[in-house]
Amino acid sequence: SKAASRLAPQFAEKGGAGAKKRYAAVVCGSAAPRGTLKGFIVKDEATHTSHIVPEGTAGAKSASLDYTHVCNKNSLALLDVDLHTGRHHQIRCQLAALGMSIKGDLKYGAKRSNSDGSISLHARRIEFFQDCFLLGFVRAVAKLRPKFHALAHLSTPSSCSSLIATLLLISALV
Question: pTM score, two decimals?
Answer without folding.
Answer: 0.77
